[in-house]
Design a protein that fits this description.
With about 375 residues, the protein is an alpha/beta fold. It is built from 16 helices and 13 strands. An eight-stranded mixed β-sheet has the order 3-4-2-1-5-7-8-6, sandwiched between helices. It has a five-stranded mixed β-sheet with strand order 10-9-11-12-13, with helices on both faces.
Length: about 375
């Protein structure tokens, strides 16, 4: 480790509030039923962290894989009803394993099932945050999983890496640890490049990391790419991320001791305000606004509101107050925000100066298409 990495590792070791995500391949022996011994080992390490004064939250995968194992299925199902049935069966065993493991350590655990809609709805977001903070104050370990039994779009598109990043935002964590079946992020795919080496530390927002990340395995829905994306999400709340091999003995305690375990993706020192964290973390947008270069520059560099004059095109069917994505002329996302006008109204006023809005629409709600207080850069 060089001096810079040692400094970053020391900061991660001092983190008070941890979110620890356990991958499906680890929790379920590569899909062949729950790995109760490993869960007990991680619970023991987490209990040590808790006794040392740290807040600990677990995001665990494995319900679908455990349910499929109980049903005797050898491959992950594809149909939605089978996925939901497997999740319902497997969640019983998954949460019980964690509960028993923490009970052996003298700790209480609490089950929380979330979907991305719980994050997208502002009231439910605040309720979930309040519940999690209360559990932490009581010394209880929250065990979180995506609610696959009722989720629809999330089962196809979601993953618990992303959920862990969003939970990090939700509780304003200091550190996100993603335990996986790999040692960390490599310079290239080690399956095809024998010269691939482990990346010890990097900046979470470095776009080059996405170019070298791979895909997921048969039982997981994510891969290294989703882990890098989760780290970028977590970085919005100034949360650094460690991606490390979950089979390493004492891996969590090694991280807490500042040792060079896995890949550390450091977050910027500044974080978004709570409301903008929620806006940036909401995954399901209702439409897109395509902006010209001038509007993108104003949003990025000056932090101003989005005016209709800078909008080139409108996509989607959204209503006033719904979340939309703002993209540049190449389709790259710049920001997200809550619009003051519907898609029909926005189409009528795109490219126009604010002084003409009342003339075109017959009324004026706001001079801005999106006010800066309702806008978050991504």
């Amino acid at each position: 480790m060089d001096a810079e990495e040692r400094k970053l590792r020391a900061a991660a070791a001092a983190a008070r509030r941890w979110v620890v995500k356990i991958g499906s391949a680890l929790a379920t022996r590569e899909g062949a039923g729950l790995n109760a011994e490993a869960i007990a080992e991680w619970a023991g390490q987490l209990a040590e962290l808790r006794r040392a004064g740290r807040d600990v939250i677990v995001v665990t995968s494995g319900a679908v894989a455990e349910g499929a194992a109980r049903l005797g299925w050898k491959v992950r199902p594809h149909s939605l009803n089978q996925l939901q049935a497997a999740a319902a069966i497997g969640q019983m065993g998954l949460v019980r394993s964690w509960e028993l493991a923490f009970k052996e350590c003298g700790l209480l655990a609490a089950q929380i099932l979330l979907t991305h809609e719980d994050i997208a709805n502002r009231e439910r977001y605040l309720n979930a945050r309040s519940t999690l903070w209360t559990l932490l104050q009581l010394g209880v370990i929250p065990v979180i999983n995506e609610n696959d039994t009722v989720a629809t779009e999330e089962i196809k598109l979601g993953d618990n890496d992303t959920l862990a990043g969003l939970v990090s935002n939700l509780v304003e964590a200091d550190l996100l640890v993603i335990l996986t079946d790999q040692d960390g992020l490599m310079t290239s795919d080690p399956r095809s490049d024998p010269d691939a080496t482990l990346i010890g530390a990097a900046q979470a927002v470095d776009p080059r990391l996405l170019d070298i990340a791979g895909d997921g395995g048969a039982w997981g829905r994510g891969g290294m790419r989703t882990k890098v994306t989760a780290a970028r999400l977590a970085a919005r709340s100034a949360t650094s991320t460690v991606i490390a091999g979950g089979r390493r003995p004492g891996v969590l305690l090694d991280i807490a001791a500042g040792r060079g375990v896995g890949t550390l993706l450091a977050a910027p020192a500044t974080k978004l305000a709570a409301r903008k964290l929620w806006l940036a973390g909401t995954l399901h947008v209702r439409g897109r606004l395509r902006l010209d270069a001038g509007a993108c520059r104003v949003l990025r560099e000056q932090g101003k509101s989005l005016l209709p004059v800078g909008v080139l095109g409108i996509e989607g069917d959204f209503e006033r107050g719904e979340l939309v994505s703002c993209v540049d002329e190449h389709g790259h996302e710049v920001a997200r925000g809550l619009v003051n006008y519907s898609a029909q109204e926005a189409t009528a006023i795109k490219g126009l100066p604010s002084s003409r809005l009342e003339e075109v629409l017959g009324y004026l709600r706001e001079p801005e298409l999106i006010h800066r207080d309702n806008l978050a850069l991504v």
